[in-house]
Amino acid sequence: MAKDTFFQKKATLNAGGKLINLSTPQVMGIINLTPDSFYKDSRKTEIDPILKQAEKMLAEGAAFLDLGAYSSRPGAEDISIQQEMDRLLPAVEAVAKAFPQAVLSIDTFRADVAASAISAGGHIINDISGGELDKEMFATVAKLQVPYILMHMRGTPQNMVQQTEYDDVFAEVYAYFVQKIYRLKQLGVHDIIIDPGFGFAKKQEQSYALMNRLQEFEALQLPVLAGVSRKRMIYNLLGTTAEEALNGTTALNTIALTKGANILRVHDVKEAVEAVKIMMACNQDKDK
Hints:
The structure is a single chain. By secondary structure, the protein is of the alpha/beta class. It has helices at residues 47-59, 81-98, 111-119, 137-144, 169-187, 204-212, 232-238, 246-258, 269-283, and strands spanning 12-15, 18-21, 26-32, 64-68, 104-107, 124-127, 148-151, 192-195, 225-226, 263-266. Strands 8-7-6-5-4-3-10-9 form an 8-stranded parallel beta sheet. The chain has a two-stranded antiparallel ribbon with strand order 1-2. Strand 6, helix 4 and strand 7 form a beta-alpha-beta unit. The longest helix is centred in the middle third of the chain and has 19 residues, at 169-187. It is globular and about 40 Å long. The two termini are 19 Å apart.
């Protein structure tokens, strides 16, 4: 059970001068700027479809848009920094210009890409590697003074499926966060969000074990992001596909909310926003 105090918890992010209150869970819409992301309907590689998707997600209630130009699905092709920049920067600039009120998260593990994307109009860095794949990332985030999404992963997208041996997956992920958070705070990073990295260097049962104990990350006193949308942990379990995994995603997002998730990172914003509204209605009388 989530703590009774969760929905009254005060948690704010300063993203580009915009204060975002996470005491009500918020939704982050995924826009993949790659031709090979695992869910084909999320792929937007031209500016017009990118802007249409951004407009739709914002209208449906997304508090954040997460733009990424490097596919992190298991076994995805490694691309150069220049390729990532060429895909990402025009999209960030276009979305920031068309929707100046939007809060843009930049999904990259490369410090140079992060810095360029923030200059182009981004507000948050979402790093799947937790600083492991670019030793300059933590210092860059500190210098930029932007919120940082710290995710747990082992290895790289190309080899993470071979790195799934844990004695205790929750304990090891928790210890990873403690170490990384300390380093980030020593550097002066003020806004940190933690993401357990469901499916990243984790077998299906390990991802569910983390979800089962998600509320225990509350002890870190930081916002928690849950990113389970249409993932293999859902569609493998149900014997379906990513395209058929919306219902399972909504079910798992709802479980994440009951366990204290502050941000849901999703392909389907409308359904996630509805899950938050229903959860909030269920919790509205808890302090009365």
